[in-house]
Records
---
Amino acid sequence: MIASDPLPSWRPGEIKSTILNFVQQIITPGSPDYQLPAERIAVFDNDGTLWCEQPIQIQIFFLLDQIKKLPVENPVLAAQQPFKALLENDRAVINTFTKKEFITLFLGTHTGMSPESFMGNATDWLDTSKHPRFQQLFKTCLFQPMRELLDFLKANEFKNYIVTGGGMDFVRAIAEEIYDIPAEQVIGSTSKVKYQLVDDLPVLTKLPELNSFNDREVKVENIGLHIGRRPLLAFGNSDGDLAMLHYTSAGEGKRLALLLHHDDAEREYAYDRDFKLSPCIEALEVVPQLPGGVIVSMKQDWQKVFPFEG
Amino acid sequence: MIASDPLPSWRPGEIKSTILNFVQQIITPGSPDYQLPAERIAVFDNDGTLWCEQPIQIQIFFLLDQIKKLPVENPVLAAQQPFKALLENDRAVINTFTKKEFITLFLGTHTGMSPESFMGNATDWLDTSKHPRFQQLFKTCLFQPMRELLDFLKANEFKNYIVTGGGMDFVRAIAEEIYDIPAEQVIGSTSKVKYQLVDDLPVLTKLPELNSFNDREVKVENIGLHIGRRPLLAFGNSDGDLAMLHYTSAGEGKRLALLLHHDDAEREYAYDRDFKLSPCIEALEVVPQLPGGVIVSMKQDWQKVFPFEG
């Protein structure tokens, strides 16, 4: 039996029981749903699932801060679109951007350096930058119930992966510190990298060219590439996660496909279909019909949202 | 201190001491070369490093067996080159193939199925197919000293990865059973895969198009993609591994870059520059000059080669 309460920030009820029972059945030898530790793969979206993605994704805040250096570093580029609009905080232009365009811009403007150098920059920024509404460091704007779930799964020999539409190196820079997930268990959008010798020493260099935009069905294709096993549990919050939830749910035996619904304007934000950068429309309809499909209500199912709440 | 002898199949001497001392320094808190468990990444080539690759790589034997079914399954294709030459065992033609051409052919002829189905086929074949000289199952033709090294590293909280020029799914089919390395720690050559719905259920399907030929500098680029950390230890046996060995060696602090030299015709094979599919020429010259670079002689440094030896 699972001792004490591994999920204190989850309110007692059907959803919490479903999660606890699922893990109990997977880990109990002799249970019809028992799985060996090697099979215990769990995949998590990041933006809006593990941490806050409002009013815009945290890495877009990072991008905007980086672009502020442009007028000094590269005045010619700074005068061109889309940089001009971003520098002038021109919402009319910014609001026309899709998530893929932001990611492409993001990957395109952090190039010519090694992944390690980029990760150093990202870590420095995350060490000091705060969320405009909560006035807390971005890196503390993660969801406490999700961190408890990650820890609970890890303690039961699950291997937790992040499968994010965000930039892989950006998330790798922080995943170990805030989620206890090592870099190699972060799958995300990537630019191409090139092996080259600099001063006779081999390094990898990030190129401006997009390699993989890790969204929708590409998330599943990259799960195949990086993991090679169908997950037992998947957790997302948008239509970009639906393929991954569907793929997980369709495996043999017991699976769990969880969708977080942001319905708590008071403690976090309430949004779904209208969030242009990452809408949740189809997923809210489809997930309840999937085997093991579960909608999680932030408002109802979470006792506590952020770790910094009293 | 490391108790008893974790590497009984390695002969006492300089090479064995170098490996034991390296691990001791990495794992000892307070040592100047101490590394946290999260940093302890070790990467291994597969063909010719972990298991025998002579007279041709094991997956080429698999390919040749699969192609024998062609005259029944696809007579038109069977009459075309290169299949005709392979079916007729026409060495004059076969010997003109490069490794990349074989891998491309290999990936191109195992398509239209899920990675899981393919891995099932590979496992079945490996369960029954024998090496022509040793008359032992191919899957037992692994190098006993290497298996001991993998176990020793794992016991000391290293994470072992295979970084192979061979097909990723072929090696994933067997890596857990014979090396205790899970699928997600196998990086290899890949075809593209596509997410699709079959009978309304989501599956991945292997496509004939090459995605990545994991050789030379691409091995390092894929280490960046899959791991995101510079390894502490790398082990290879050919020029295809040199970039990975160089990249590993060039990291800060203590590193080990090991090259296996096949110089034992009696117990295994003696070859280096003349093995067209995977020559070892430049690596034999460069590795001894790298920091932490070590040439391992099969003949001198290994007490035992295969697990099936008396």
---
Amino acid sequence: MTLAANLSSKWISVSEPLPHVLHVELSRKPVNAFSAELWSEYGDLLDRITHEGRDVRALVLSSALPKLFTAGIDIADLGSGEPAADAARKSLSTYHHLKEFQHAIGAPERCPFPVIAAVHGLVVGLGIDIISACDIRYAAEGTQFTIKEVDVGLAADIGTLAYLPKITANHSFMRELAYTSRMFSAAEAARLGLLSEVISGGKEEVVKAAIALAGAIAGKSPVAVSGTKRILTHSRDHSVAENLEYTAVWNGAALQTNDIPESLRAAKARSQPAFEPLRVAKL
Amino acid sequence: MTLAANLSSKWISVSEPLPHVLHVELSRKPVNAFSAELWSEYGDLLDRITHEGRDVRALVLSSALPKLFTAGIDIADLGSGEPAADAARKSLSTYHHLKEFQHAIGAPERCPFPVIAAVHGLVVGLGIDIISACDIRYAAEGTQFTIKEVDVGLAADIGTLAYLPKITANHSFMRELAYTSRMFSAAEAARLGLLSEVISGGKEEVVKAAIALAGAIAGKSPVAVSGTKRILTHSRDHSVAENLEYTAVWNGAALQTNDIPESLRAAKARSQPAFEPLRVAKL
Amino acid sequence: MTLAANLSSKWISVSEPLPHVLHVELSRKPVNAFSAELWSEYGDLLDRITHEGRDVRALVLSSALPKLFTAGIDIADLGSGEPAADAARKSLSTYHHLKEFQHAIGAPERCPFPVIAAVHGLVVGLGIDIISACDIRYAAEGTQFTIKEVDVGLAADIGTLAYLPKITANHSFMRELAYTSRMFSAAEAARLGLLSEVISGGKEEVVKAAIALAGAIAGKSPVAVSGTKRILTHSRDHSVAENLEYTAVWNGAALQTNDIPESLRAAKARSQPAFEPLRVAKL
Amino acid sequence: MTLAANLSSKWISVSEPLPHVLHVELSRKPVNAFSAELWSEYGDLLDRITHEGRDVRALVLSSALPKLFTAGIDIADLGSGEPAADAARKSLSTYHHLKEFQHAIGAPERCPFPVIAAVHGLVVGLGIDIISACDIRYAAEGTQFTIKEVDVGLAADIGTLAYLPKITANHSFMRELAYTSRMFSAAEAARLGLLSEVISGGKEEVVKAAIALAGAIAGKSPVAVSGTKRILTHSRDHSVAENLEYTAVWNGAALQTNDIPESLRAAKARSQPAFEPLRVAKL
Amino acid sequence: MTLAANLSSKWISVSEPLPHVLHVELSRKPVNAFSAELWSEYGDLLDRITHEGRDVRALVLSSALPKLFTAGIDIADLGSGEPAADAARKSLSTYHHLKEFQHAIGAPERCPFPVIAAVHGLVVGLGIDIISACDIRYAAEGTQFTIKEVDVGLAADIGTLAYLPKITANHSFMRELAYTSRMFSAAEAARLGLLSEVISGGKEEVVKAAIALAGAIAGKSPVAVSGTKRILTHSRDHSVAENLEYTAVWNGAALQTNDIPESLRAAKARSQPAFEPLRVAKL
Amino acid sequence: MTLAANLSSKWISVSEPLPHVLHVELSRKPVNAFSAELWSEYGDLLDRITHEGRDVRALVLSSALPKLFTAGIDIADLGSGEPAADAARKSLSTYHHLKEFQHAIGAPERCPFPVIAAVHGLVVGLGIDIISACDIRYAAEGTQFTIKEVDVGLAADIGTLAYLPKITANHSFMRELAYTSRMFSAAEAARLGLLSEVISGGKEEVVKAAIALAGAIAGKSPVAVSGTKRILTHSRDHSVAENLEYTAVWNGAALQTNDIPESLRAAKARSQPAFEPLRVAKL
């Protein structure tokens, strides 16, 4: 079975551009609008890759549409809710809905491998929630971003406001963008600290750069990379002391891996190391 | 009643440059030195605006003096304390004094609308505590900053050290500035991540830019903007998971707002949306 | 007794380039490889300086070797462990070993004075853990860095992953560097937010700049500087509200220091203030 | 459709002894040993009840077997694992397995209604993890408990050690029981603070008492009860200040419920109030 | 000026039964129903005592009415709110209202001296929030308690659910009482861990016992007692390690008090020690 | 080498009453007053046992003196400090002193085996800090306790106030005891939740019971017992969710122990299992 077998679905296509690398492309014309069906599909796809024990070591997320990454949430989904219920019941129902929505968009954090977002064109509203939950963000130089939610009368609630204060650098600038919904360029996104890099060129170039990065990561020990990912995520949310304790427990087992002697052997032999896959498959 | 009616006081003048926008100007000659009386007045003003239910949607804070934002704390206030008490009682008395002082300077965080600091000239000592507690910071290009406290024999305790590690980007540079009390330029402040932007020109230009930004924010849904503010502030101090939970509870109610259909209607009609004020008035 | 008396040891030499300033140089040829013996010596040295009550007010850490700061952990130390034990016992033994290792490398955080790392050449693996635990980082312009651990099959566990998400600015770029082990330049390190500044020149220039900075800090009140350090470290790991509370308790006592009147007196007299040493000596 | 329709499965039978009350009975002969299949079934059942939007307002959990609640984990499940993997991969695989296991046993916490455990006979090992995650615990007077894990060479990891320090009263006694695996009686469990009450009689009496309690709860507003449950669970894990903030946000919406006027109306009329069901159904 | 001068108001009378001891009696006939006016008055009274620097060292809170402590919130206050607003604005308005309400009822926690609740008769709904925020609780033997909120269609939100999981002992029993609103006796309250003691007799006896306890506390060093209070409150909400750090900072100053030699002197002389008052007066 | 070889010192004698069990007796006549020298010796002893890799599986702590456990801190140690320093320097010096003192008394928490305190006679002041940091507490029936610190003009700062709110059951009663310094009996200590049990008889009986308990623990798997201890300590200070995550990481390695098959084998064979020692020896 190839790595990408049976993963593509109606609006998401999945391929294997390099060994152990998956490329996930969003493709819901005309603007990759995220209906509940699409975000469920998206979250389920990432969780399924994890739970099926496929030997994925890095994943690139991009849009298959030529003009944009995504226009954000499908506007048709706003305004649903429970017409007959009282305000308390509506609120509780919405709360549960949001928790599921957050869970789906937060799927990259649960993957044991890095997820790299490669964006171009427009990244609107939910698009920023989506890429914020990824490990790494590359953008093509002409990309335009907007934290659109305030323009529609609501506060972003699927991750943008939870992630940005932690993963970027300048709260003043971040709040300005969040309060005004104004468009900002890739260069401004880089200044905010949202991007590793602005890639010269467009859709093709940014995807190519992201896949190259994914390939570099896929050559490393999956025990080391997945441990690094988990520890960095823990560190983001805990004090230095808490994180050092967690890391010492984690590495108590992880340092017993065969990947260490294999890495040293390969480095000495100037050959490519060969690593066993991780087994995190669901029961 | 106009928005700014009866708000001006001895050392602080308040005007309404745009609908729903307040401009608060510090004006205690010669250097906006903050005596206990001034910081009490400052904190009370912001809390009063909030509690009186005035329909403010953004606020700009600046100095009315031509040469500087503020020279910091009024030196006459240092060295007070309780002469007769033992060291433990002095310490306890000082602790309570500092809590009140912190509460006053932290008032912008309690406002349901964004507070934008627009600074020029000199921003010394307490001036950095003050702007750190604001949402957004703009500085005129010639502005000079200094975390002055160490030069006077003390550690900054009214917010600078609590905010900077979270709202800026470079701990090495931040510690260098905090340990040396050296002057740093607007460009360095921008590199630190303290400013959204350095504004070309001086006092007038930076205030004009800040008021324009305030006007843009004031055109948005107050439910959306105030929710965004509260969630970002929560996010700064909590893990991603904690913040997503809080946000889902918050938006359970907030998504029932009329501002959403009104925003969509206005966008479709290419007209300006009209929003009801928030009611957070004190009993 | 001079400040540096009896502090130098086999692989670490200590001098006093300026009053109240220590210069600690790593000197284990050929590449400053950190064996357990070296990192124990390093941690013990810093703790000893603290506990002996020497009147140190700033410390510069650098390498005495011409080509590099450090090549990281001594590879001979990997692969030890408990051959006969079961995996659980190995894990527990490794956990305790890591806690000690972390404790040693975290020693700069326990010093009541700032520690400034001045690096040049190569900073590999453990080198990044070491400088991350310092207050301030300067690098010579040609310095190359690498978070090397993933290349060896493990996740960095002595501080790099605990500190970087908090003390730098761009999680996307940071994760890219951590997942790939790729070399990055001083300019990239500055973009990451890891450095105060890139210093033109090489080993000599960066050390000179760091010592000058240390001298500037050493002229300030040690009560103020050590309080600022402790409060900033607390702030990094706690919410704004928690930190303001802690600071108010701290300054309840600290504001009773004679350093405040002495600082004010000296400023008025345009003379150098003279401060009593701190006494934090061990029993 | 009745409340319990289509919920019973191979080893778990579900009935509706009172309106809005479910009775879940474990029935895997001979000792209710929990294989992975059983605990999956158990967790899925509770989550399914929640997500299908059935109008359940309280649930009683007990054993259908005459002699005991459960003998704990199915010993056949120990010692599985990944034979070929290295210790690091085994550890990671086990970690993911435990997370799933914990998720299943923690299902009562995710129910929007209270879950009442009614136990008799023996409650061994996993049995204590299971009841610890419930809201309320009743035991028949002859019940014997044991935190069995240490006797088998492991630390309890599915909830016992996470819950007991918070939901009971005496850490000295709790640690004694956890370190020795000794049997303790219902009276001792009550002294520990684990039980609301020891019920005179056996299996029938304790189930009867629990169903009566469930009936009393089912007569109350589901908005009020589910809010109380969520807030108490939050309170267990957060400071007073954090919890008050969370509660104020929660009740901002919840106090708009029709259940308040309906409760007041019914109390005045001395009739039974009638409440709408909650709608927390999954998409 | 006597200690209690000018403190009594319409529904609250204040006396000084012993030196440094205040007795605060609720007296709003017929049932001490808490309108917004009453709880504001209550919170303001306690804060005022603190801020005026009166030399109070312990305070007893009880009801002046013969039959009960309080029937809880004034039912006339429910159902107010903002009739015209949308659900989001109502929610925000309620949120702010609840924060103020919580702030008032939480006033005992802000007092630098212990507050002892002495209850008799009925303690209904808000009554439990009120006594939960006190340091110590005594009840007359016939007292009946009820967490009434669920019966009215809401979750308790002014402190009961925030405090009980931390200050009592048995989560199972606590949840049972909170979900059912059933009456529980003083003996059951003691079993829950809510009371220090059940006092034989009625209103007079319980008040007498509480005043005797207050007198014993008032004889101790106010530096010691107020520090103990603050540290215990901090400890309730933080880990052991966090609390030890906070305590060490606190006592760094507090151990310099003259109360230590004075206590030792008096103990040796078998006389009553004399302590200076604390000075925490507002500016 | 026997387990207790070379461990006894001037005021502390150590013996091995049962295999893998140490008995540590305090013996500084006339009242086991804790000078700095004694508490250093005490903390160093426990840490040394841990770091020397002795195969200890449980430890009993008691007093060798017939009349009491301890009278608390050596009064001669109060009132030291830094006579010449200003209040800020005194405070900092005291802070460091307290941190060391706390570290020594907190040593039982760092032991990988349970520590059981067996007390009789009087347990005064520091005595309660000491036993609070132990895992399990037994008291002879006539034992009298007092949280003495307030009587001497200070707040307990070596653990009593950090531990009691978490390890006991009734905050009202606890605060009453802490604010008044009154003597309380073993029965009252049991009611507080401080003791597992009150042992009939005196010094000999309580020590005998504690040694029997230690023997029972020493027969269990040290991997299981030390893991249980660490997880319970973590659980006391973290939320349920945080603790479940930590436990899953911990047991990922721990479940690979040979102690599980050995425990199962021995249980089947009705023989005593034989376990390898843990190896946590210092470098």
